[in-house]
């Protein structure tokens, strides 16, 4: 970890196996492999790198060619990192019901995300990716069938596990399956090089695709041709899509699976929370689900048994999901009590303002002239005197930008206005003119409108529209919105 690396891609893999000290029964050696240590926080960074480099080697992916994949999120996030580093444009198709954190992360990394309807399930997003790849000549990763996915795990994840347990017998290796890449790649190697390790595959108890032993219908190219009859929606995002992938089926057919372990949703959530609160290991829902599987094995295992569970990803991409449903944003009654247990810095008793140490700033002639010119500039009749990063100013900027209202923003605390404290002087000149000390202050056609609330209220009453019309400002007046919704939530009135 403390080495020098040539690029972020060299940091994929080599994740730690960590002992679980408090959650398992005594006498059992329970370990987890924490895939959140990968650069983008999930096991799918491995697949992303494996598939792209395999396609490069085989000449299937040309420099600058667009890459496309259907993903529940983590593959897309991993691909976005690999494509950003290697310079490939990336398009991801994703069903709309996967967490919004994932979408925004991929877009932050420069990818484009095409959503598909939740009702079309995993196979819908897959079919959309195929459609787009064919129509545009893009490289489709095919993570569910691509052998490079499993091979990368056979080459990295499996040897890492063998090395970590070189000095002891590993009795159980516990995983789930999404693409089945982890499963096929690791199980294949373990069966050869550690034949006494039992391979346990977990799946949601309400979607027992493997447990039902019903076949998956499949087209000639290996892709599923219909949803599996045992599929039901479940909360373990990344596990058990609505079909058994080719890679997973290969593993079943090769007899590499020793046990199938159904996992209840509530047990998965509880295990993820226990990992966080009792072991300090922060991971996602499928990680909780895999640990829940490991704990089930541990209940009946002989003393001295060693179990390793895969923890596929970090918990940070689940803030909007059932994993965080009971985690408050506001203070709980207990925290309010704590706040009230000492006198200062409370919401029910405002603190005294700190004594002002700054010497009063006066309006210089330069500032007066600046203000006079700004307020009579007929090319820019809407002027906002603002602070660069103030939340109220940002909310107003959002309103102006949504309505396409052209305006000049004079950011008084920005670097541009710092020489001789010109910004402070302009603020003093404004204060003398309007009698208002707070910022932002908005003028239209030289007339003072007010601050953020006054502009919001005038927008809602229609008065702003009149002012803009009188000042000859063209904008989009078709939009209907509650401007107060543009304020960040911590500025909404506290209940
Ligand atoms: N958990 C999560 C959170 C995932 O994103 C994935 C991959 N879809 C998996 C588990 C399963 O990994 P694999 O695709 O290698 O079976």
From TrEMBL:
It catalyses: O-acetyl-L-serine + hydrogen sulfide = L-cysteine + acetate. Its EC number is 2.5.1.47. Keywords: Pyridoxal phosphate, Transferase. CDD domains: CBS_like (cd01561). Residues 9-313 form the Tryptophan synthase beta chain-like PALP domain. SUPFAM superfamilies: Thioredoxin-like, Tryptophan synthase beta subunit-like PLP-dependent enzymes. Gene3D superfamilies: 3.40.50.1100, Glutaredoxin. The keyword Transferase applies. Residues 382-449 form the Glutaredoxin domain. InterPro entries: Cys_Synth/Cystath_Beta-Synth (IPR050214), Glutaredoxin (IPR002109), Glutaredoxin_subgr (IPR014025), Thioredoxin-like_sf (IPR036249), TrpB-like_PALP (IPR001926), TrpB-like_PALP_sf (IPR036052). The keyword Kinase does not apply. GO terms for molecular function: cysteine synthase activity. Belongs to the cysteine synthase/cystathionine beta-synthase family. This is Cysteine synthase B. It comes from Marinobacterium lacunae.
């Amino acid at each position: 970890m403390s080495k020098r690396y040539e690029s972020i891609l060299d940091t994929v893999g080599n994740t730690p196996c960590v002992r679980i000290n408090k959650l398992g029964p005594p006498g059992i050696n329970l370990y987890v492999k924490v895939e959140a240590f990968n650069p983008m926080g999930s096991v799918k960074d491995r697949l992303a790198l494996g598939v792209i480099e395999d396609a490069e080697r085989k000449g299937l992916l040309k420099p600058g060619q667009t890459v496309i994949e259907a993903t529940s999120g983590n593959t897309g996030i991993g691909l976005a990192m690999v494509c950003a580093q290697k310079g490939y444009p990336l398009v991801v198709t994703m069903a709309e019901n996967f967490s919004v954190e994932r979408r925004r992360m991929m877009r932050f990394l420069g990818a484009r995300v095409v959503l598909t309807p939740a009702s079309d399930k995993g196979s819908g997003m897959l079919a959309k990716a195929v459609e787009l790849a064919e129509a545009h000549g893009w490289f489709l990763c095919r993570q569910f069938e691509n052998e490079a996915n499993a091979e990368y795990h056979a080459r990295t994840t499996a040897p890492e596990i063998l090395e970590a347990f070189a000095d002891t017998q590993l009795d159980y290796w516990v995983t789930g399956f999404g693409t089945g890449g982890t499963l096929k790649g690791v199980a294949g190697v373990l069966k050869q090089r550690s034949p006494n390790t039992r391979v346990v595959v977990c799946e949601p108890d309400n979607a027992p695709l493997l447990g039902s032993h019903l076949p998956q219908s499949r087209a000639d190219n290996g892709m599923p041709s219909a949803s599996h009859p045992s599929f039901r929606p479940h909360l373990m995002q990344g596990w058990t899509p609505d079909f058994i992938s080719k890679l997973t089926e290969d593993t079943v057919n090769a007899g590499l699976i020793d046990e199938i372990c159904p996992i209840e949703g509530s047990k998965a959530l509880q295990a993820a929370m226990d990992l966080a609160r009792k072991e300090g290991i922060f991971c996602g829902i499928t990680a909780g689900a895999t640990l829940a599987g490991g704990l089930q094995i541990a209940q009946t295992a002989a003393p001295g048994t060693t179990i390793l569970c895969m923890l596929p990803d970090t918990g940070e991409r689940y803030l909007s999901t059932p994993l965080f449903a009971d985690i408050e944003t506001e203070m709980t009654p207990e925290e309010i009590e704590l706040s009230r247990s000492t006198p200062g810095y409370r919401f029910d008793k405002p603190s005294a303002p700190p004594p002002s140490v700054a010497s009063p700033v006066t309006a210089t002639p330069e500032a007066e002239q600046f203000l006079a010119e700004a307020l009579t500039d007929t090319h820019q009749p809407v002027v906002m005197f603002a602070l660069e990063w103030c939340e109220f100013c940002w909310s107003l900027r959002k309103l102006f930008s949504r309505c396409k209202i052209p305006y000049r923003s004079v950011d008084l605390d920005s670097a541009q206005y710092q020489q001789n404290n010109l910004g402070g002087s302009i603020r003093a000149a404004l204060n003398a003119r309007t009698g208002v000390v707070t910022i932002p202050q908005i003028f239209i056609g030289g007339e003072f409108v007010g601050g953020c609330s006054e502009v919001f209220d005038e927008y809602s009453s229609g008065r702003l529209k009149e002012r803009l019309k009188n000042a000859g400002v063209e904008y989009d007046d078709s939009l209907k919105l509650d401007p107060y919704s543009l304020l960040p939530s911590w500025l909404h009135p506290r209940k």
